[in-house]
Amino acid sequence: VHDLLATRFPQPLGEIEEILWRTGQWNGELVHRTKYGHEVIVESRWILSTEAGKPAVVLEINTNVTERKRAREAIRVSEERFRIALQHSPITVFCQDLNLRYTSVQNPSAPFTVEGVLGKTDLDLLDSPEDAERLSAIKREVMRTGAGFQGEVSFTVDGTTRFYDLTVEPL
């Protein structure tokens, strides 16, 4: 079967068979070629069945994961492009959970750092509780209505009032 499918193994077949004989199973990723020449990536599980303590048959179960792998790669490439685009821009992108705790931050502006922001709320980060409540109210309204917000906001950090063009969109 492996000759028919022109299977590519992640390691030499002899090593895979040695693991199978020793442990009774093997799991890994294989690449098969269809009769039309297309490559198919499969998650493969081999189980050694024995009779009277001797190897009798190998059950091989393959799950086609080609599209899943392609989708993951497309997401990885897209995220890398996004990171590169933000790297030298004056734009900060962040996500917050339903409790308005920061769950991700890209390209934070000084004095903020990714490590210093993650898991925190605006109340934890800003000098003024009033500023924090004003920003939180905007975000809660976006979550409540599902309608985005775009406008200028200001808040004080480390004694300095900063002005930002804020866009908030629900996910």
User: What is the count of β-strands?
Assistant: 7
* Shape verdict: elongated
Average pLDDT score: 93
N-to-C SSE string, H for helix and E for strand: HEEEHEEHHHEE
Set down the secondary structure blueprint.
Elements: H1 13-23, E1 25-33, E2 39-51, E3 54-64, H2 66-87, E4 93-96, E5 102-106, H3 114-117, H4 122-125, H5 129-145, E6 149-157, E7 160-168
Antiparallel strand pairs: 1-2, 2-3, 4-5, 6-7
Description:
The chain is of the alpha+beta class. Helices cover 34% and strands 35% of the residues. The chain is built from five helices and seven strands. The strands form three sheets. Strands 1-2-3 form a three-stranded antiparallel beta sheet, with helices on both faces. The protein has a two-stranded antiparallel ribbon with strand order 4-5. A hairpin with a 2-residue loop joins strand 2 and strand 3. The two termini are 46 Å apart. 5% of the residues are buried. The mean pLDDT is 93.
What are the defining features of this structure?
elongated, 171 residues, two-stranded antiparallel ribbon, 7 strands, alpha+beta, 5 helices, 3-stranded antiparallel β-sheet
